[in-house]
Amino acid sequence: MPRTKKIENKIEKKAEKVEKKADEKIEEKDAEKKRVRHSYLYAVGRRKKSVARVRLYKKGEGKITVNGKEMEKYFPSLESHQQIRQPLEAVGKLKDFDFSVKVAGGGIQGQAIAIRHGIARTLVIFDKDIRATLKPFGYLTRDPRRKERKKPGLKRARRGPQWAKR
Fold it and tell me: Mind listing the pLDDT tens digit for each residue in 77-99?
């Protein structure tokens, strides 16, 4: 009979350990939910070969920094400034947020539209109701057009070699 009591004690101890581990896991999950990971919202915008990683900071005064520079210094043309600010103007929140953008690849125009796409996506993450405002303008749609590939026997995608009569 003493043997069965020892076995019962071992089983009880194991059950207690399993319960403790389960309780610890639940506490860890609750702690993860409570912890805020970042002070910003994040989204990616794309256009052709350009990729813009956009961070939205909630308490801001409307500053947009691109690759560590002010937007006005990075993009010289007013047209690019207007394109980047279009989603903010559509929503009416020009001075509510600060944006930090890291953009790479493509040309100036593609980068500007990639930033616009990223800003629109971060605004939707911030408030789901904004989606209805931005969707008709097409700011949330990624432009699928890309450079066409070069074909064999041609100089470029469609440009054939110069034809000589003789």
Answer: 898 888 888 888 888 878 888 88
* Host H or E run for residue 43: strand 40-47
Residue 98 lies in a domain: yes
How many separate domains does the chain show?
1
In the numeric block, which tokens belong to residue 153?
Answer: 């026997």
How many helical (H) and strand (E) elements, i.e. helices and strands, does the chain have?
5, 5
- pTM greater than 0.90 (yes/no): no
Per-residue pLDDT of 26-63, as tens digits, reads 665 554 444 446 688 888 999 888 999 998 888 888 88
Gap between the Cα atoms of 147 and 9, Å rounded: 72
φ/ψ of 110, rounded to 5, equals -65, -40
Residue 110 lies in a domain: yes
pLDDT of residue 34: 47
> For position 93, which CATH number holds?
3.30.230.10
The parent domain of residue 108 ranges over: 40-137
Q: Is residue 67 a contact partner of residue 138, using CB atoms and an 8 Å limit?
A: no
Angle at which helices 108-126 and 78-91 pack, to 10 degrees?
Answer: 10
